[in-house]
């Protein structure tokens, strides 16, 4: 076989053991390089598979107890100075597999976008909920995050049997649940929810950047970066800014303008 033909062969999803063994007897340096690259990719795939199995521990416990629909819940956007807090609730299929799924903050933007589309297309159900800056001011950010999470659950087309929640206890809630710190690193369902929530919110803040162009929302997602703070000082506060967050609260006390 020619080198290019072998390269195309090694890019296929499944290659028989016999074919690989035969290729390993080929002494050409080009073939050896292709096989070395192939082996590294397979090692990485195996690593992702094992990690996914580890992060399915809580889901498998629920399945073993007779649960059918297990929902992962996460939120994003507690810290920004502008924009809503966004929560997502996701019910994955029992046999689902999303290679490289992890806490959304640990993934590249490209990988998050890829997983976002796959999860939405393949999940049993998912729902997204926004709680805006006015409600954040009314309820405080902690309670607003919990409200967003619970509303996301209530929006699901399929009622879950059990909830796995990232660091937010749902006390006296009608659906059995378990909250865990760093749940997006420990549960595939919560990790899926973290990806859905983050990509949705990041895209939303990019849309707000078109409406409010002086705050660099497309890059900072509403967090208090240098450009964002410069925009606040120069152009004032927008309707999506959180008026009970510093330094916005102090700007209002000093009589700063309300911006756009």
Automatic annotation (TrEMBL):
Gene3D superfamilies xrefs: Ribonuclease H-like superfamily/Ribonuclease H
Top-level EC class: hydrolase
Subcellular location: Cytoplasm
Stored Pfam families: RNase_HII
Cross-referenced PANTHER family: RIBONUCLEASE H2 SUBUNIT A, RIBONUCLEASE HII
NCBIfam families according to UniProt: PRK00015.1-1 (NF000594), PRK00015.1-3 (NF000595)
Protein name: Ribonuclease HII
Source organism of the structure: Gemella sanguinis
Lineage: Bacteria, Bacillati, Bacillota, Bacilli, Bacillales
Gene expressing this chain: rnhB
């Amino acid at each position: 076989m020619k080198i290019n033909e072998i390269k195309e062969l090694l890019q296929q999803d499944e290659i028989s053991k016999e074919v690989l063994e035969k290729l390993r007897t080929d002494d050409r340096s080009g073939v050896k390089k292709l096989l070395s690259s192939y082996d590294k990719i397979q090692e990485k795939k195996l690593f992702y598979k094992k990690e996914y199995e580890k992060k399915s521990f809580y889901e498998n416990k629920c399945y073993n107890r007779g649960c059918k629909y297990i929902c992962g819940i996460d939120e994003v956007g507690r810290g920004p100075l502008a924009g809503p807090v966004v929560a997502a609730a996701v019910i994955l299929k029992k046999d689902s597999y999303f290679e490289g799924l992890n806490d959304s903050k640990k993934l590249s933007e490209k990988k998050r976008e890829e997983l976002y589309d796959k999860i939405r297309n393949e999940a049993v159900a998912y729902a997204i909920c926004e709680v805006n800056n006015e409600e954040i001011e009314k309820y405080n950010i902690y309670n607003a995050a919990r409200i967003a999470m619970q509303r996301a659950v209530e929006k699901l087309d399929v009622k879950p049997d059990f909830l796995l929640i990232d660091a937010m206890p749902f006390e006296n809630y009608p659906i059995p649940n378990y909250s865990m710190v760093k749940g997006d690193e420990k549960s595939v369902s919560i990790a899926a929810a973290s990806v859905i929530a983050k990509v949705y919110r990041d895209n939303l803040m990019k849309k707000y950047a078109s409406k409010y162009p002086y705050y660099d929302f497309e890059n900072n997602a509403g967090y208090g970066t240098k450009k964002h703070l410069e925009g606040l000082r120069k152009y004032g506060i927008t309707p999506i800014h959180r008026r009970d967050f510093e330094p916005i609260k102090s700007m209002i006390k000093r009589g700063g303008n309300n911006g756009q």
